[in-house]
């Protein structure tokens, strides 16, 4: 793994949010996440926050690796209009200017949110008429200030409850659901070229909350309200499982004529991190990326800061963390390589792969009309013991694991993950373990050809 020196992305490279862009030849030997995503017609971004900008090694990576930046806090209402009518754009401007110097685009976050909302708004006791005017004025003033500088706006953030109903906030209580349309219309009038988004968490897979979002945005589209996209925050946690049918979920929103974007991706775990958890995390980063790339209207991915050094997770979820692709010392983790590979790049920037220290034999024991049984033998071919393993491979489309043994099995899209059982996690050099599963198929007879164990490629036997 090599670090790149700070490298300003060619000015103008990212003028269009989702245009297919060539990889810069100067850096083709080791393209960044942003360049790899650009080659797929997407952006790859990171959130950042003003206090972090005095950390030079951090800024070097922020400036070179990403093609989009989202201010994590600087454009929220408490920052931009802390007192009624007194606007302050200093922090937001600092981040926009950094992005402009680097040729990066900016996702604006966020115009209307119930959190980080100054008490003069939340506790103001305003009538519907007053609050509508306050909301319009805020959206208009902030979106006008950043006109032409912000490519996407999260106009409304987190409007829904977990059951998909409208969240109770000062805005919904006073104005009903209409506050959402008000905000979107004001944003469109202020900056007609910015893509306008509604953004929320726990809508990444299909479920009650994403169903609620689907109903909301469908109804807004039917009413002709200006809405261009839906942001799927993607705050995932290993202990809660991968979102159900993520690609299908993104696709159903795209089918409404909306862009979709992964806007705040991070994948936390219960601490301490270990190699098995980091391998699963890497597989999930890859799966989210593949889900986005499989949906033509998925325009890009933003991670919610890029290093564990500045993640919001440990403050809010004590005992959890290690959620981002770079560790606290700004060193890339397995998730970084997984992202590169999912975006079509070579792991380790094209450096030769280390020799495989595992071998995987996959065989189909029996097969019938709709199902099959697969046996998988994993062998430690390295010189040291493996303590805890996660095997990852892709099944051909149409095949699904229905029930497995010898490991904890899960599947997301085509990607299958098998984590060791308590009794076969340790494999001494030369030792093997056999696991397997019953699967379903829809006619195809293919089988997986590539396997990774704890993020390292294995020889396929
Ligand atoms: O600015 C004050 C500082 O003066 C004070 O000394 C310090 C003491 O704790 O707090 C600072 O404010 C913190 C602020 O971030 C800026 O760093 C707040 O305590 C802290 O709560 C706030 O957290 C932010 C969080 O939103 C608030 O909900 C995170 O940085 C930010 O990453 C996070 O982002 C949200 C998205 O906007 C929406 N989706 C979820 C996501 C994660 O919570």
From TrEMBL:
It catalyses: Endohydrolysis of (1->4)-beta-D-xylosidic linkages in xylans. The keyword Hydrolase applies. The keyword Hydrolase applies. Residues 1-28 form the signal peptide. It is an enzyme of class 3 (hydrolase). Residues 47-342 form the GH10 domain. This is Beta-xylanase. It comes from Actinomadura rubrobrunea.
